[in-house]
Design brief:
Pfam family, one: PBP_dimer
Transmembrane segments: 5-23
Domain Penicillin-binding protein transpeptidase: 247-577
Shape: elongated
Structural class: alpha+beta
Number of helices: 21
Helix content: 25-40%
Number of strands: 21
Membrane topology: Single-pass membrane protein
Radius of gyration: 31 Å
Largest sheet: 6 strands, mixed
Strand content: 15-25%
Keywords: Carboxypeptidase, Cell inner membrane, Cell membrane, Cell shape, Cell wall biogenesis/degradation, Hydrolase, Membrane, Peptidoglycan synthesis, Protease, Transmembrane, Transmembrane helix
Length: 640
């Protein structure tokens, strides 16, 4: 037996090797493309990227032709460098730098020498192209924006870097790739598939025809079109309302989770990142560390939610049965929770759930929170139960949107306070600021808009998303999966009644914003705002916050508005939210007084104060910690 095993192994191995060689040399000759690489030139046919439309079918992003000058260093011969530099309007130093970079990438493979020529520049080069052996033009498609709003939604396209090329064999030097926004998130769908032609060259490097009669050539496939959930008219209106202000607006369709508007201010024209000046423009935007136009405040900025969080506090109190609709607390202009510790309030008298909401009584919700935390045997158990309720609204979590950026905010748990108080000793009054959306709580505008969608739906939400339809494909099922909150649907009715009275009641905090014949449910908010510069803390004007949904019955829009340094909720955020709701539902504006004030209003003087503080205390803006990125543990005295 042993005598035949070794010869058998040898025979089987030989058969396998012969079969493999026969397959490679006779049946499959595709590897000849690699072995004959010197005689074959690959020419890519780049497809158009998919078009982008808004929810109503309006074209937002199309394509325009562009041309790159490519170079193969090894094929360069007898180049008149001065003539080429003059033709392309570059210096000799630029020429040398670009050639060196191309050689580092590969002496034999094409690299981009000069990108994104317009038609005039392309025509001028094409006339003399034969004089510059080793150089040729490559047609590509650049983005052509039909609107000036939504740069934070679209993102932009840029050339791939060496790291991307190393990781993904699809890309070669000079290829374009989506960055940020839907361009990045849906890159593989939007980009399409490159076509390739293999051309045979003779010993003089001249093209003599297709290789193997085009047997290995492939046809490019255009990228698929995207239909966004965005209402472009609403997006534009929100962008206009936020001119000369900083902050974010997020509007969601409650029944679907579709994002209707995603405004970040300040913003920029997406066309700035197209063409020969894109690199210079991006650098200027990137280094603006004060206004931060590349920073999507709707998705990334983390603010204390302020009084809108009282909605959650009240609902948890009802669910935990520590209060009912008729439970009342006496307010004496504030809530005392320890020796010398007093949370101010503008209210006085007896507050119950309804008037507690529409008058935004700090005392009422401080008492509700205290009862909720004191219900369980120890505060650690209580705060974790509280956090479970809060997170069921999508707060303190990455919501899982189809956008590549975002922040999770912060909802404290027992671990938070165990780190802060390693020896124990904390209790409900220690963390009472959480009751009114201050303390350690941080939320993004997207999360607060989603919170209002939960309230509008009386207990559930769908993951917010920006793409409504992909041509020829199905949307991911996670965007059509319902998420239930931990609050019983019956408890939303009294809360919604209180939110309606924010507009309708004579004592409502948004009574001056009421729109005729429209039932809006909303909540004002004000959040304390501090910055730290060079180790010193400065108190700034509070952030203005407003959340709402409408109509009261069968809501079609839920919205959150943050205006940085905007004083109080009804000064800036409230009017903007009201106008956005009316614009979406009625397609017109009746509150022209609010519109005029918001369109013409400016907070630039407040922002200049911040810049002056930074310049005086520390010359490097990157050293600033503000309330959009870091919270300071505190017990605030806030009046909403």
């Amino acid at each position: 037996m042993r005598k035949i095993i070794l010869p058998l192994i040898i025979i089987i191995t030989a058969i396998i090797l012969i079969a493999r060689i026969f397959y490679l040399q006779v049946i499959n000759d595709s590897l000849k493309l690699q072995s004959e690489n010197n005689a074959i030139k690959k020419v890519f046919d780049f497809p158009e990227r998919g078009y982008i439309y808004d929810r109503n079918g309006k074209l937002l992003v199309a394509n325009q032709p562009s041309y790159d000058i490519m170079v193969v260093p090894r094929e360069m011969k007898n180049i008149d460098t001065l003539d080429l530099c003059n033709l392309l309007n570059i210096t000799k130093e630029d020429f040398i730098k670009k050639i060196k970079k191309a050689i580092v990438y590969s002496p034999r493979l094409p690299s981009v020498f000069l990108s994104q020529l317009n038609k005039k520049e392309y025509a001028a080069f094409q006339e003399k192209e034969r004089k510059f052996e080793g150089f040729y033009t490559q047609k590509r498609a650049l983005r052509d924006y039909q609107v000036k709003e939504g740069a934070n939604i679209f993102g932009f396209i840029t050339q791939v870097n060496e790291g991307i090329i190393a990781k993904n064999p699809y890309y070669n030097s000079g290829d374009l790739i989506g960055r940020q926004g839907v361009e990045q998130e849906y890159e593989e769908i939007l980009r399409g598939v490159k076509g390739i032609k293999y051309l045979l060259r003779d010993k003089h490097n001249k093209i003599i025809g297709p290789y193997k009669n085009g047997k290995f050539d492939t046809i490019s496939q255009q990228g698929k079109d995207l239909t966004l959930t965005i209402d472009s008219e609403l997006q534009k209106y929100g962008t206009d309302l936020m001119i000369n202000k900083r902050g974010g607006i997020v509007a969601i369709e409650p029944k679907t989770g579709e994002i209707l508007a995603l405004v970040s201010a300040p913003t920029y024209d997406p066309a700035l990142l197209v063409g020969r000046q894109r690199s210079k423009n991006y650098t200027e935007l990137y280094h603006d560390s004060i206004a931060k136009p590349l920073y999507d405040r709707g998705l990334q900025a983390q603010y204390p939610p302020g009084s809108p969080f009282k909605i959650i506090t009240g609902l948890i109190g009802l669910q935990e049965e520590v209060i009912d609709e008729e439970t009342g607390f006496v307010c004496h202009r504030g809530f005392s929770y320890g020796r010398g510790a007093f949370m101010k309030c503008h209210d006085a008298g007896i507050s119950k759930l309804n008037n507690g909401i529409y008058q935004s009584c700090n005392t009422y919700f401080a008492n509700v929170f205290k009862r909720s935390i004191d219900k369980y045997p120890n505060p650690s158990m209580s705060i974790d139960k509280w956090a479970e309720h809060v997170k069921s609204f999508g707060l303190g979590e990455f919501l899982g949107t189809d956008l590549p950026i975002g922040a999770k905010g912060l909802i404290p748990t027992s671990k938070t306070y165990q780190r802060a108080y390693p020896n124990g000793g904390w209790r409900s009054t220690t963390i009472i600021s959480n009751s009114i959306g201050q303390g350690e709580i941080l939320t993004t505008p997207l999360q607060l808009a989603n919170m209002m969608a939960v309230v509008a739906n009386k207990g559930y939400y769908y993951t917010p998303h920006i793409v409504k339809n992909i041509k020829g494909s199905e949307l991911d099922k996670k965007y059509t999966t319902k998420h239930e909150s931990t609050i019983d649907p019956k408890y939303f009715e009294p809360m919604i009644e209180g939110l309606a009275n924010v507009y309708n009641s004579p004592g409502g905090t948004a009574r001056t914003l009421k729109v005729k014949d429209m039932e809006i449910c909303g909540k004002t908010g004000t959040a304390e705002n501090k910055i730290r510069v060079a180790g010193k803390t400065y108190q700034l004007k509070d952030h203005s916050i407003f959340v709402a949904f409408a109509p009261k019955e069968n809501p079609t829009i839920a919205i959150a508005v943050f205006v940085e340094n905007g004083y109080w909720g009804t000064r800036w955020a409230g009017p903007i939210a009201t106008l956005m709701v009316e614009k979406y539902i009625n397609k017109k504006i009746t509150r022209k007084d609010l519109e005029t004030r918001m369109l013409n209003g400016s907070l630039q003087d407040e922002y200049k104060k911040i810049e002056n503080i930074i310049r005086q205390r520390f010359p490097e803006p990157s050293k600033v910690e503000d309330s959009t990125t870091k919270t300071i543990a505190r017990k605030e005295e806030v009046v909403n």
